[in-house]
Amino acid sequence: MKPEQTQIKFGKRDLIIETGKLAKQANGSVVVTCGGTVVLVTVCMSKEPKEQLGFFPLTVEYQEKTYAAGRIPGGFFKREGRPSESEILTSRLIDRPIRPLFPAGMVHEVQVISLVLSSDGENDPDVLAVNGVSAALSISDIPFNGPIGAVRVGRIDDKFVLNPTYAETEKSAIDLIVVGNRANVIMIEGKFKEVSEELAFEAIRFAFENIQSIISLQEDFSRKVGRKKAEIKYKKIDPKLLGLVESMTKDKLKEICLLSGKEQREEASDILAQELEEKLVVDGYEVKDVRLALEEVERQNIRSHILDKGLRVDNRASGEIRPITCEIGVLPRTHGSGLFTRGQTQSLAITTLGSSSDEQTVEALEGESSKSFMLHYSFPPFSVGETKPMRGPGRREIGHGALAERALSSVMPAKEEFPYTVRVVSEILESNGSSSMATVCAATLSLMDAGVPIKKPVAGVAMGLVKEGERSIILTDLNGVEDHFGDMDFKVAGTISGITAIQLDLKIDGINLDLVSQTLINAKDARMIILDKMRSAISEPRSELSAFAPRITILKISTEKIGELIGPGGKNIKKIISLSGAAIDIEDDGSVYVSSSDPEASRKAIDMIKGLTEVPEVGKIYAAKVKRIMPFGAFCEFLPNKEGLVHVSELAGKFIKNVEDVVKVGDEIKVKIIGIDDMGRINLSKKQAEEAQI
User: Fold this and answer.
1) Which residue spans within 305-390 are E strands per DSSP?
2) Residue 686 has pLDDT above 80, yes or no
3) 4-225 belongs to which CATH class?
4) Shortest CA distance to 608 belongs to which of 594, 590, 587, 626?
5) Which option is the CATH number for 324-458+515-537: 3.30.230.70, 3.40.930.10, 3.40.50.920, 3.30.160.20?
6) Averaged pLDDT, 460-480
């Protein structure tokens, strides 16, 4: 196959898709280019089905190698290791819109790999990768119900910007990624600076309209270079088995659906499954097939119950929120804590305050940066009553934490206003749906309890959907079983004034714009109720920090004094830290941050810093120490490493014949600066200092 290329206008730049040159042994491969950013995307499918797995084995990997930005990795091994959080989040961004578009019952393993080959520091590779994956799947022989298109939308000076650069995104009130097909929206990922539901929807509409040309490009490209789709075996439930399970469980499943508690439903379902296995395995059916059939019958029953009766499995109406309780200050020694419980979902959030030295350094292709606000999400197995090994954070934990962090980042105070590094950890203690949005609420309570002056409280809610043909019901405050058997997980977080973050994931091939709009409206109604519940626990951030939190004082020194403060080899600053016990951070602009939970340690460090950096001022009185005695006067140190002369005539208000009759080496006295000559020599007066204090 000879190389083929196509392109389209992609905002201010061109989007170029090429195939037939690189990675030709893959089932499908494309190179996507925008500006100086280049992404290679490959898709491969196993030759044999993996029927034993019982699910669709899709693996998505996204990798950024430092060579793409002309850098060599740090560390001893000088090579990339485990995926960064950014790589994991982009892998999820690719996975979520394509997963529902593979045919039902597909059990051939599919692997998607996106490699960033070049990065220009302007154009984000994530959206390029999504479009590249769609193009690679479309031209491959892998069954795929695409293509799809993806765009990023910003808003600058009250105008939407298509595919903004990194610099433009920094200035934007919106950072939105939308993925869709011809008819529907499939995935949304967005961060907002408190924008209205109406503006958020207009941004989504703008994105959807611009997606269409990208889809047309891929359709034309596929017709030109695409391969015939492979004929593969799909795993389907035996209709006879499905009928048997349905007839044997019809009445019992209706009863199970009406059970209000999660544990009760799960226990009853498990007992029913065991009964079925005992009866059907002897007839030659495998246990896993019986379980799959039962799950399908249960899915149909729950969905029919919601659509036909307008009631959910926990007897709530479609727009009803589960009972909410909010608490603050639940932990005695932490800097701030908040407990948020919604139904059987519970998040305990803990806030810790630190200095600028605690900031997280983030290395990315676009350069190194630092984060002063971090939110980490933890999902231990006991939260769902399970036992399994506890290891490092997985993709789910990283994804949920990033979403909650986006939701809160726009309300965090500026460093000038609150010079602390802030870390929030959400411990999920119970989970029955929407733990990421519970995290947003708990984190808000915790931040306010810690005295962090956030601009406004933030709450979040997950919206669900059950859709069959033309019938659909939007569900407010999604629970676990609705998430499992439903069609949508649409998370919306925001303040009383507007949206701060949204995330849409689907199990179907998309929803139309009308459903998107209505979901945003319903989510706003729910958010106002939740914010009101949160205000009953704490209405505004505490005015005082915890007694256990560090106190940070900001000093401003001349940039010319930075070297003097640090000293040769860091001698001076190390000495101050050692003697005072305070933490000290120095910025390039002359800002000095002194932090300690001990007020005396802070005071001592501040005095020493001021002493080292202060510029002597004529007329000012200082505490000084006599260092040397001369026949004509005494040399005194009035600031660290700064001396001046008290002439014998300025020692006292009378004639002095012998200097040592008035002062001796080691004496501590008050002196006044009375002059600084052209050579920088400083003249002091003990006499005038004493007169000024009378």
Assistant:
1) 324-328, 336-342, 345-354, 360-364, 367-371, 373-378
2) yes
3) alpha beta
4) 594
5) 3.30.230.70
6) 95
Residues 237/107, Cβ–Cβ less than 8 Å: no
Q: How far is CA 354 from the centre of its chain?
A: 19
CATH 3.30.1370.10 fits 551-613, yes or no: yes
pLDDT of residue 694: 65
Please name which of 536, 581, 582, 534 lies closest in space to residue 555, comparing C-alpha atoms: 582
- List, in sequence order, every beta strand (DSSP E) within 563-632: 583-586, 591-596, 621-630
Element (H, E) at 268: helix 262-280
**Of 261-275, 564-578, 594-608, minimum mean pLDDT range:** 261-275
Residue 202: helix, strand or coil by DSSP?
Answer: helix
**pTM for this one?**
0.88
- Asked if 11 and 123 count as a contact pair (C-beta separation under 8 A), the reply is no
pLDDT digits (tens, 9 = 90+) for 113-125: 999 999 999 999 9
User: pLDDT class for 653, splitting at 50, 70, 90?
Assistant: confident
CA distance 514 to 526: 19
Nearest to 418 by CA among 482, 513, 354: 354
- E strands along 157-220, which residues? 159-162, 174-180, 185-195
Higher pLDDT, 457 or 433: 457
